[in-house]
Write a structure and sequence with these properties.
23% helix; two-stranded antiparallel sheet; single chain; alpha+beta
């Protein structure tokens, strides 16, 4: 007697049911996977910042001052071509204190090459009033060439905006506040001998998210490094507002600690 082979195809309803289940699972899994991936990248950035802080303290111990920048400015060869960041000679923390150039780049930094650079405005003491910060000297804009690879010294105001700003600095914007002694300079600056431990050293904005107007969105986080060695996520809006002198969470108005983190 010949064996009978029975075949049974899926019905249309069964196929649609399976597709619907897969779609629901994908809708659940993809956001979770993206969140886990971003958390891993933040952890990497915080680890890099911790290594920056260790090197920073070693530099201070050896030189009695903090470095002018963390990595270094862009250097150019005799043909005015940028020298790759991992070959510069005038570095500060790199090579002497940090051997891995990748410590200076966050995983979310879209620039991976080591030659792209940006001219970024920097703040310096005003020659006519050293307690005041200015980005102009004798009427000329003060800008320095930074590697776009470098997430620790500079960063974009919003990822993809192409607008870079200085994050690590010895000098912070002058935010005078009135007390019995009159306007005083902010003590939360690395130029001073004993800045408070909660002084902001630098921050990484590559993890920031922005709305269509270029403002950080609710829930957006920057990774901030404090002088104590703590690296942690902080509301991007607080950091963006500090840059403009308008931090609503600032509670040290009479103590001139605007550039400390409450």
């Amino acid at each position: 007697m010949r064996d009978r082979i029975c075949t049974r195809a899926f019905t249309m309803v069964e196929m649609l049911t399976v597709i619907a289940i897969i779609a629901v699972l994908a809708a659940i899994i993809f956001p979770v996977a993206a969140t886990v991936r971003e958390q891993a990248r933040r952890t990497t950035t915080m680890s890099n910042l911790h290594q920056i802080e260790v090197a920073l303290k070693m530099y201070k111990q050896d030189n009695r001052v903090y470095p002018e920048v963390l990595l270094g400015y862009v250097e150019f060869d005799s043909s005015n071509n940028p020298i790759p960041a991992d070959r510069i000679r005038g570095s500060f923390l790199y090579q002497a204190y940090i051997r891995d150039i990748n410590i200076f780049r966050s995983p979310n930094n879209p620039v991976n090459d080591k030659v792209s650079w940006r001219a970024v405005e920097v703040l310096l003491p005003d020659p006519s009033n050293p307690s005041v910060r200015t980005n102009e000297i004798n009427g000329a804009l003060v800008a320095r060439p930074f590697y776009a690879f470098d997430s620790m010294d500079v960063g974009q105001t919003c990822p993809g905006s192409g607008v870079f700003e200085q994050h690590y600095s010895l000098y912070r914007p002058y935010m005078p506040t009135s007390n019995t002694a009159g306007p005083l300079d902010d003590m939360c600056q690395l130029q001073y001998n004993l800045p408070p431990e909660n002084t902001i050293v630098t921050w990484v904005s590559d993890h920031r998210s922005c709305d269509s107007s270029g403002r950080p969105t609710a829930g957006s986080k920057d990774i901030v490094l404090l002088l104590s060695g703590t690296a942690k996520p902080v509301d991007s809006r607080i950091i963006a507002q500090k840059m403009t002198g308008n931090d609503p969470n600032f509670s040290n108005a009479g103590q001139n600690k605007f550039w400390c983190l409450d």
